[in-house]
Amino acid sequence: MDHCGECDFTYDPADASAAGPTIRDGVVEVVSVLRRRAGDDLRTRRRPGVWSPLEYACHLRDVLLVQRERVLAVRRTERPVFAPMGRDERVDHEGYAEQDLDDVLRQLGDAAGLFGNVLARLDPGDWDRDLVYPYPGPTTRTLAWMAVHTVHEVRHHLRDIRLQVEPAAG
Ligand SMILES: [Zn+2]
What is the set of domains in the chain, with CATH numbers? Predict the structure, then answer.
């Protein structure tokens, strides 16, 4: 998984040190796209099996919160093995489609800030620390990879949201 053809994202570990600010900028964009469409129905799925814009926003918030905990675990543990976050189960367990848009957008901004803070506090040597990442299958990765992967999550889901609320954006 070095390149995502869907959103044209290339994994470059050199981008890790800028991941915090890049993610904050990406989340600002997600929030502004959804605010512009706040009068539309953002809860209902356009197609069965494809999350609604609100569900994507909830997912992104949870990704950032989970990744923050993982960064902290990597700092204090030798090669931690992470369990999957339960992305599909959370949709129902947290009731993504029933959440309040304003709450979710505020939480999304906070989650990006919380994640960026733990990245900003890393020592230079921390980026090479190992972990076992669960997705798509358990694989040993560095913290730098995980930071870049999180940038990809934001970019990819910004696209998922845009395709639904701004179909012309392609
Ligand atoms: Zn992608």
Answer: 3-169 (1.20.120.450)
